[in-house]
From TrEMBL:
InterPro entries: Asp/Glu/hydantoin_racemase, Hydantoin_racemase-like, Iso_Racemase_Enz_sf. It comes from Caldovatus sediminis. GO terms for molecular function: amino-acid racemase activity. PANTHER family: PROTEIN DCG1. Belongs to the HyuE racemase family. Coiled coil: none annotated. This is Racemase.
Length: 273
């Protein structure tokens, strides 16, 4: 089978999180099939000069603003000949808009996890370390038409910096995750999605695939596999996204570039990669 190159987009500055970046790189190498290359990209190094990512992305406007870097990444991915663009962040801001801009397959972390979870149990739930994002996760689930099979997005009981410390001393955090998972299971959850990639890769690194018989979805792996599947379908059947209607019509690329320059967004070149 032909090789596949996936453009991975993180919501973090990967250079500031070396332990996480290395764990992510190793995990992609393990879950991607032979011949698939996942090329990692982070945010512009100066994106979070005063705040770490989690403080910003608990606000809807900051997510929208930051997501213009994802737009640039998707355009770059298509223009550089990548086969797919993978938005590896749970809230997936601008995911629909990005799909309207490029012709290559575009997959998202939250969406891939929810669609996978729907095949594993009747009701899926999310454990968040950024609790303020719960309404956005719920809205994304509604967009997918899965609200009736959603057990909710609930706090996991620890924060981003606790996750980072878990890369050095994982046992206490894994115990706290299991306790939160049992609370979600008590609400009727049959498939658990770990909120945000740093927690997901930490759990995967330590073999956490289930809690009391309830599967823990490796959302990172699900996103890679979804990208591979969409590329395979494109190549074997010619499958492409809808291009009619307000949300899916593709605007002229020249005008996209013109407006990015007008708003000063095109100056965000030099992102990590």
């Amino acid at each position: 089978m032909s090789n596949i190159r996936i453009y991975h987009q993180s919501f973090t500055v990967l250079g500031n999180l070396p332990a996480y970046a290395e764990a992510l790189r190793a995990h992609f190498a393990r879950v991607a099939r032979p011949g698939t290359e996942v090329v990692m990209h982070g945010m512009h190094p100066r994106t979070y000069q005063t705040e770490y990512p989690g403080n910003d992305i608990r606000y809807a406007y900051f997510q929208t603003l930051h997501s213009q870097q994802f737009v640039l990444g998707a355009l770059e991915a298509e223009e550089r000949g990548f086969d797919a663009f993978a938005l590896m962040t749970l809230p997936e801001p601008s995911l629909q808009e990005i799909r309207s801009l490029v012709d290559i397959p575009v997959v998202g972390y939250g969406e891939s996890a929810m669609l996978t979870a729907a095949m594993l149990g009747q009701r899926a739930g999310v454990l968040l370390f950024i609790a303020e994002m719960a309404p956005m996760v719920e809205r994304n689930v509604e967009r997918l038409g899965l609200s009736g099979r959603f057990a909710g997005a609930h706090p996991v009981g620890f924060a981003f910096h606790d996750v980072l410390r878990g890369y050095e001393d994982p046992a206490p955090l894994l115990e706290r995750f299991a306790a939160a998972a049992r609370g979600l299971i008590a609400r009727g959850c049959e498939a658990i999605i770990p909120g945000e990639a740093p927690l997901c890769v930490l759990l995967a690194r330590h073999g956490v695939t289930e809690v009391d018989g309830v599967p823990v979805v490796d959302a990172l792996a699900a996103t890679v596999k979804m990208a591979e599947a969409m590329v395979d379908l494109r190549r074997s059947t010619g499958l492409r996204p809808c291009r009619t209607g307000y949300f899916t019509a593709t605007p002229p690329r020249a005008r996209v570039r013109e407006l990015l320059r007008f708003y000063g967004i095109a100056a965000l070149g030099g992102r990590e990669g």
